[in-house]
Amino acid sequence: xxxxxxxxxxxxxxxxxxxxxxxxxxxxxxxxxxxxxxxxxxxxxxxxxxxxxxxxxxxxxxxxxxxxxxxxxxxxxxxxxxxxxxxxxxxxxxxxxxxxxxxxxxxxxxxxxxxxxxxxxxxxxxxxxxxxxxxxxxxxxxxxxxxxxxxxxxxxxxxxxxxxxxxxxxxxxxxxxxxxxxxxxxxxxxxxxxxxxxxxxxxxxxxxxxxxxxxxxxxxxxxxxxxxxxxxxxxxxxxxxxxxxxxxxxxxxxxxxxxxxxxxxxxxxxxxxxxxxxxxxxxxxxxxxxxxxxxxxxxxxxxxxxxxxxxxxxxxxxxxxxxxxxxxxxxxxxxxxxxxxxxxxxxxxxxxxxxxxxxxxxxxxxxxxxxxxxxxxxxxxxxxxxxxxxxxxxxxxxxxxxxxxxxxxxxxxxxxxxxxxxxxxxxxxxxxxxxxxxxxxxxxxxxxxxxxxxxxxxxxxxxxxxxxxxxxxxxxxxxxxxxxxxxxxxxxxxxxxxxxxxxxxxxxxxxxxxxxxxxxxxxxxxxxxxxxxxxxxxxxxxxxxxxxxxxxxxxxxxxxxxxxxxxxxxxxxxxxxxxxxxxxxxxxxxxx
Length: 592
What we know:
CATH topology of the domain at 366-458: Serine Threonine Protein Phosphatase 5, Tetratricopeptide repeat
Structural class: mainly alpha
Number of strands: 0
Shape: globular
Strand content: under 5%
CATH class of the domain at 366-458: Mainly Alpha
Number of helices: 32
Radius of gyration: 30 Å
Distance between the termini: 72 Å
């Protein structure tokens, strides 16, 4: 009983402290520094060693311009704990009072402490960085690296150069570090990618490209070819990335899988020309059974995506030929899946599709292959409107592959199935979870569908229009484009002026695009641009219109202002980066 009481008291004490900390932070965030100070002083009394409470107390003193109290508190802590980073705090307290001479005195003392004990660098440099004292933070890292050559602060130094706007020094340091310590390459590329996509200096990409090309030419090291390939992939220039991968392949033939992956990326980003070139190269240069099957599958997938009914007999023949050539085995799962999907969604031969997949499940498959086949089978059951049976398979994959991309994809399809059934409440419940999925594409899709349901429930609690829309979306899933088009057009007539109108116009535009009717596609996108400027689909209407003018009609003068509208007015759009790139190309910029 005594143990239970003690446990309850400890738990209650922790709960109260957490509540007080939250209250103090709220005061601080709202700029109510006097109230925040009272709370943080109380918290610091209860935990004198807590650095967070101490720092917040000092911050409050400084915000209230009580610099003497701040100095006293810092000095007392310095005398007690001897922490060198507190010298930076003392200096910063004087800097806030515009006493630069005394501030410099303490900053220099902090640097001297690193010279006496190099391990002090971590706390000192971090404190300099937190105070935005970039030059001193750089000096701290450089001092430590000079004293002990085993210490490596290249990453931190490069980041600081970037903060100072010294881009060339940043690039040189990052690239040297990536070559010397390849294990750090992913985090370095993440940093560079941030500059490539967010930096307002249009010269950055050009500087990076030149730096990489110079190193590739001087050293002839394949490391730089691979880095260049990564660079071009970030810009979605898959043809140029392929040139680098070919150079790597000539000297390192075991790198062929990278070329296949590049072909898939080009496919996913609809760069059909580059994808065909890459995958054809694969077919011409390998005898690896798995790679041959994969490349053939991707090429056929692209043909099916853009096929009309007159192409179906030849595609059917080619599928049969390839399956006969490579046989039926776990290796040919990509071809078998494609055959099943083509049979169901294009030839409407559902029984053949199900037989292919059920036979595949009898083979000795690994966990991923088993999940892929079940997902395809669930798609076909959904195509047949056997919603409950489809849900069983989607749920199995979601549970078996929990946490993986295919597991999250299965969960998204479970939510979409509920949506198609017009069970919007359950779909929304599932989509709320998926909005934070680790895969950005899945998270975006989940958010889009969640917003569609919620936005069209607020205005119409009976969800009449939304139910019709879900049915039309299901017709699209079934690849019944004309029936879907009619259904969406009826929604426009029957629910004109309602919340559902802009997304309906968007769907109709995309169907016309797939049918090759660009005039009608543009007409529907224009209706969004002209009549629904405040809707969440406006950036898509601008981007899809620009793409039609740019890629399909080659009317670059009409494309340019549409891309520019996204750049100027929709910086949060997922199409922002691509729109900016296309706009610069049309404008004739050389630094791309």
